[in-house]
Amino acid sequence: MRSPSFPPWGPPPPLQLLLLLLPWPVWTQVPAAAASWGTPGALDCPEGCVCAPGGQANCSGRALPAVPGGLNWRVRVLLLNHNRVHALPPGAFADAGALLRLDLRENGLRWVHARAFWGLGALEQLDLSANRLEALLPGTFAPLRALRALSLAENRLARLEPAALGALPLLRALSLQDNDLPALASGLLAGLPNLSTLRLRGNPWTCGCALSPLCAWLRGHPRHAPEAETLLCVSPGRLTLSPLTAFPEAAFSHCARPLAARDLAMVYALGPVSFLASLAACLALGSAFTACGARHRRRRHAAARRQQRRQPDPGPSTTSPAATAAQA
C-alpha cells in the first residue's frame, strides 16, 4: 500500500487541518465582521456614517437633520459636525453608552432637551460650539459626570444658570467665548473644582455687581484664564474698556451680598408663618369692626325707641262748653 505523500515543506500543522475540516461559512465570518465596521451602511455602523477601527463614526458634513440611527456600544467617537441637527430630543444618544467624544459643531442647534445626554456617563469631550443656543435647561449636563472638556463657544447664550452645568467634578476645560454673556451667575463655577482652563473672550461684560463672582474667581485663579487680561467692560459708560482684572474686592463693597443658606432657610420657614399670622390678624380686626358696628346700631335703635316712648299720645278732644259756645 502506498503511503500518503505530502508537499516538500512537510505535513500541514494541526490547526490548518482543523480549519480545513470546518464548514466554509464558519472560518469566513471573522474577516467579514472586521470589514463591516469600515464600510458605510454596515450592520454595526450608524446610518449615513463611515466607521473606522477603534470605534470612530464619522458623520460629518452629510446634511443630517437628526442624530443618525444605529448607534451602539461600539461607537467611541461620534463626529456629527457640519450637519443640520437643530434639536436634540430626550435620550438622543442613549444607545451609545460607551461614547467618549461627541462633536456637534456647526449644526444650527437651537434646542437641547434636559435629558438629551442621558446615558452618556462615560463621555469625556463634548463640543457644542458654533450653534444657535440661547439658553440651556437645568440639568442638561448633569449625567456627564466624567466630562473633562466642554465647549459652548460661538453661541447666543445671554445667561448660563448654575443648574444647567450642575456639578462636573472632572471638568478641566470650559469654553464660553463669543456669546452674549454680560456676567456669570453666582455659583456657576463653584461646581467645577478641577477647572484649569476657562475661555471667556468675546462677551459683552457689564461691570456691575453681577460681575463680582467672576472677578473674584479670576483673582483667585490667575493662571486658569489665559485671556483674562483681554477681558474688557462694554458698559456702563464710565467703565467702558476697563479690564475685569482691575477690579479689587473693595470695588464691590457697596453691593448687596446674597443671603446665606441659613438665612434663606429662615426666610422660607418664617414666610408661610408670617402670612398665616397676617391673615389671622386681618380676620380678627374685621370681626372686631363688624361687632362694634353691630353694637353701635343696636344702641341707636334702643335710643330711638326710648325717645318715642317719652312723647305723650294725643288723646280725644276735651274742649270746654264755654269755648264751644264762644265758637258758636
Automatic annotation (TrEMBL):
Residues 1-28 form the signal peptide. Residues 203-256 form the LRRCT domain. Residues 316-328 have a biased composition (Low complexity). Interacts with KCNMA1. It comes from Muntiacus muntjak. Residues 299-309 have a biased composition (Basic residues). Keywords: Cell membrane, Disulfide bond, Ion channel, Ion transport, Leucine-rich repeat, Membrane, Repeat, Signal, Transmembrane, Transmembrane helix, Transport. One of its GO terms (cellular component) is voltage-gated potassium channel complex. InterPro entries: Cys-rich_flank_reg_C, KCNMA1_auxiliary, Leu-rich_rpt, Leu-rich_rpt_typical-subtyp, LRR_dom_sf. Residues 299-328 are annotated as: Disordered. The keyword Iron does not apply. This is LRRCT domain-containing protein. PANTHER family: GH08155P, LEUCINE-RICH REPEAT-CONTAINING PROTEIN 26. It is found in: Cell membrane. The keyword Heme does not apply.
